[in-house]
Amino acid sequence: MSDGEGLEYLQVGAELPYYAYQKRLKSEKIPYYESWVGEEELALVMEVIRDNWISEGPKTREFERRLAEFCGVRHCLALCNATAGLIIGQKAIGLGPGDEVIAPAFTFIASVNSIVLAGATPVLVDVDARTLTIDPEAVEKAITPRTKAILPVHIYGHAADMDRLCEIARKRRLFIVEDSAQALGVEFKGKRAGSFGDVSVLSFFPDKAITLGEGGVVMTSSDELQRKLLMWKNDGRLERGMYLHDLVCYNFRTTDLQTAVGLGQLKRLPEILAGKRRNLELYRKHLSGVKGVEFPSEDPRCHIVPHRSNIYVDDPQALSDHLAQYGVGCRRFYYPVNRQPCYNVSGSFPNTENAYEKGLSLPSAPTLSEDKIAFVAEKIKEFNRNRR
Ligand SMILES: *Cc1c(COP(=O)(O)O)cnc(C)c1O
Description:
By secondary structure, the chain is of the alpha/beta class. The protein has 2 domains: 3-35 and 268-386, Aspartate Aminotransferase, domain 1, CATH 3.90.1150; 39-262, Aspartate Aminotransferase, domain 2 (3-Layer(aba) Sandwich), CATH 3.40.640.10. It has helices spanning 17-27, 39-51, 58-71, 82-92, 110-117, 136-142, 162-172, 223-233, 256-287, 316-324, 350-358, 370-387; strands at 75-79, 100-104, 121-125, 147-150, 175-179, 187-188, 191-192, 199-203, 216-220, 302-303, 309-312, 331-332, 359-362. A 7-stranded mixed beta sheet has the order 1-9-8-5-4-2-3, sandwiched between helices. It has a 3-stranded antiparallel beta sheet with strand order 7-6-10, with no helix packed on it. A 3-stranded antiparallel beta sheet has the order 11-13-12. Strand 6 and strand 7 (191-192) form a beta hairpin. Pyridoxal-5'-phosphate (PLP) binds at residues 81-83, 107-108, 110-111, 153, 179, 181-182, 203, 205, 216.
């Protein structure tokens, strides 16, 4: 829908749409994203298979311990994905029918879906024009007697203004559900993303900083919330292996097969984070002074880990089509949640709309070479020349 990809499969007859889409991704010479897995992960997965403990076990506990330490939180619970974490995070703090949660209109849709799936009501607000994170002033204006929580998203690895948001939450007695799905390693004033919220999540989908194929965690520093979260992920009990259930809950567990991959990924994390920052610097270097190409600005209070190398241009679709001819994979920005068929919210979200109209994510794999970045930059310049 956002870039005409959806219709592609109609022309390929018997092929399933998703399969056709994957095939095109495989044919990209410089893919939009590529996860970085290898021998390290393979060896750890083999250990799990040899030990014959496939479901959650020692690997998962170690993975949780390492992430809690990295993010500076007391508790970390591994899950099947981050959406599950957002849902049970809101369940654990007691949200439900009649409660409003304020969330940004510019985000990946799971942030907002989780509010509905937890039984509460999303209230969308616009984002800051420069950082694309939830606008604290818009949050304040949207607060009603039913508001229970704010759901900031550190979108594209830029931290939301946690000073202002935490202050608003404290004054108005609101919870913070922190969507750090794209923000492993990001900091705001020296404090790690994921450590600000009453609950927070990380995602490990293949295009996130580290991947387990699918996976996520929910984190908290509250012992009480940790117990509730355990119940919510674990069929309403604190431990597997017993059949007494206090609550009706989900099975949102993961497996040691996956968290073994996660332990391998954590060894690579410093290199992955450095690679993401280097990519953006190289794009800036190779595209400096190019008319009509702008880079997003950065709040100096943040340590940013670019989830994507992003630029703003006049016609991101035309540029993306141009680059696709050379096997360069790009992505448009998120389609505004307010405009999604499943929400279709009225209201004014100019910064969200503008981000969608102008934004383009360039190839962003942490393993990209400077040669490839220079090639992409060259093709962007070529596009500009052709249009004049
Ligand atoms: C990826 C992502 C999610 C969902 O994570 P899953 O692990 O795919 O469920 C939620 N919010 C944001 C901002 C994301 O990027």
